[in-house]
Design goal:
Layout lengths: L5 E7 L2 H13 L5 H10 L5 H10 L4 H9 L4 E6 L9 H21 L4 E3 L1 E2 L5 H13 L6 E4 L13 H10 L3 E4 L5 H9 L8 H15 L2 H4 L5 E3 H5 L1 H17 L13 H7 L1 E4 L6 H11 L4 E2 L10 H7 L5 H16 L2
Parallel strand pairs: 1-2, 2-3, 4-5, 5-6, 6-7, 7-8, 8-9
Helix pairs in contact: 5-6, 6-7
């Protein structure tokens, strides 16, 4: 093969994370409806989907590497599965982020040719999150941060979280904005219809989150910040024309105090600060559309293992673009963004 496949949104979990999730579900110490829907399912369903995903998530060794080999995936960029530590109280979240990053770094040390890690951080405590990102990168050799969309309903457009962006920009590492179930304020109509999960609700929440990060002026404040978004940008690339038009029209008419003028167009931030990955979207026409509107340097491969572990999808994506586009998509862009 003229390239290696580097898969950029690949999930793992620690046994301690699941133990605490189970305890929270049993003791009913969490009310977040998105968490109850997602982890209530995976941690109690006898279905083959749930049981094999729970097993595979916890393997950072031979089984995972066997699965990678069977689908010709060279490397996993690993991140703690959603919502990670973002449903815990601040102190627990800070401690859990540290211990899961230590475990992740240990797995990377054992398999340096196959695994790369992103640091879990606790947005519940932004200064500690910034410190943990720095420790993750400088001491543990991790290559960026994973943030699973909202933290119990709080979104990163709020400046109280911006210590995290400042740290990522200063360290020159990307923040992967991964989906979470929609927040309590957003979820009800989706949940009632069984559409709150990866089928659509994840994208509604995370696409809105990315858009709000842009409109809040994060990239004017942190012009070198890099944000990676899965699922082909959670649909925002398809919306670019309308987003630019309506943002301009809304700002100019001064309809909302909160919607301020920006230095650049929304589409400019998408092309200059954002990278998208193909997680869950193994569909050549949609991938090529993103390459066309964002640039072939902005689109990277992801499988979303183990949630979407399908050998046939890898072959489908081999149909993407030219040889050069494919090399960028599978390998070159990831090496540049994660500095591999
Ligand atoms: C699912 C999908 C779950 C993705 C995930 O993490 C996840 C799912 C809890 O299918 O329930 O990361 N995904 O990114 O599409
Ligand atoms: Mn995912």
């Amino acid at each position: 093969m003229p390239y290696q496949r580097i898969a950029t949104e690949e999930a793992f979990a620690t046994p301690e994370l699941f133990a605490l999730y189970r305890q929270m579900l049993t003791n009913k110490t969490i009310q977040d409806p998105g968490f109850l829907s997602l982890w209530g399912f995976y941690l109690s369903s006898p279905s083959a989907r749930a049981t094999q995903i729970i097993e595979r998530l916890q393997d950072l060794g031979e089984r995972r590497i066997g699965d990678m080999d069977s689908t010709s995936v060279a490397m996993h960029i690993l991140s703690l599965t959603s919502p990670g530590v973002q449903v815990f109280d601040a102190a627990t979240a800070v401690a859990f982020a540290k211990s899961s990053n230590d475990q992740l770094a240990e797995a990377v040390r054992k398999h340096p040719a196959r695994f790369v890690g992103l640091a879990a951080v606790a947005p519940q405590n932004p200064p500690e999150a910034a410190k943990e990102l720095e420790r993750g990168v400088r001491t543990l050799g991790l290559k960026g941060a994973i943030i699973n969309s909202h933290t119990l309903g709080e979104y990163l457009d709020d400046p109280r979280f911006w210590d995290i962006f400042a740290a990522a920009e200063a360290l020159d590492v990307p923040v992967y904005l991964h989906p979470n179930s929609p927040s309590a304020g957003l979820i009800q109509p989706l949940l009632q219809r069984g559409l709150d999960g990866a089928i659509y609700g994840f994208g509604v929440d995370t696409g809105m989150h990315l858009l709000s990060i842009i409109t809040s002026g994060v990239f004017d404040r942190f012009p070198k910040l890099k944000v990676i978004v899965g699922h082909l940008g959670e649909a925002l690339p398809f919306w670019l024309f309308r987003l630019d038009y309506m943002h301009r029209a809304t700002v100019n008419s001064k309809r909302y105090a909160v919607l301020k003028p920006l230095q650049r167009k929304i589409s400019d931030y998408m092309r200059e600060n954002v990278y998208v990955t193909s997680s869950g979207m193994a569909w050549a026409p949609a991938i090529q559309f993103c390459q066309q509107v964002l640039g072939a340097e902005r689109v990277m491969y992801a499988m979303d293992y183990p949630y979407q572990f399908e050998a046939s999808e890898v072959t489908e994506m081999d149909a993407v673009g030219t040889d050069l586009d494919r090399r960028k998509f599978y390998e070159v862009n990831a090496r540049a963004v994660f500095k591999l």
